[in-house]
Amino acid sequence: MPSGSLNMPARAAPYRFQDQIRLWELPRAVVQQLAMFSAARQRLIAVYSQLAGPLAEQQGFINPTFQKQLLKGCQASLVAIEKDRKAVDKDIDQLVEGDNQLKELFGLITSIPGIGPATATEVVIATNEMQTITDPKKMAASAIRLPCWCCPLRLQVWHQCTG
């Protein structure tokens, strides 16, 4: 087949949904700040778990006096990291409270049982204040992160639904 010959649907594809296209819009400055605070919060949580995890894991394998010395040596860092995370959480809360649109959106999102401020922050950032995903089915599809074979609960639900 010659390289210049394309079938009609392939050539028409760019024009097919021309009336439904939306141009990308830069998120508002408040949402950009929210994203920066969220990234800082995630980094602090990662650093805390990198430092605290090995300390807890090695507890049964080393001398108890040496374990106490290690905990004592790292305790100030762990407290400082936790203090910084709480300060970032407070900054996020102030940012949300200072913007009426974000405050209303956070109120709606956190009214769902099981969704707290951290999850609401990620939803607002990922959807650009619920503007990029307007269809509930698309929102549900984007919320699924694990394939079915990784989650036994999903397999049980799948078998119950199909069987």
The share of residues in helices is 55-70%
State the order of secondary-structure elements, H for helix, E for strand: HHHHHHH
- The counted number of beta strands is 0
| Distance from first to last alpha carbon | 47 Å
State which percent range the strand residues make up: under 5%
Alpha-carbon Rg, integer: 24 Å
Query: Low-confidence parts lasting 5 or more residues at pLDDT below 50?
Result: 146-163
Output the structural class. mainly alpha
Count every helix, treating DSSP H or I runs of 4 or more residues as helices. Answer: 7
Biggest β-sheet description: none
Identify the overall geometry.
elongated
Query: What is the overall pLDDT average?
Result: 80
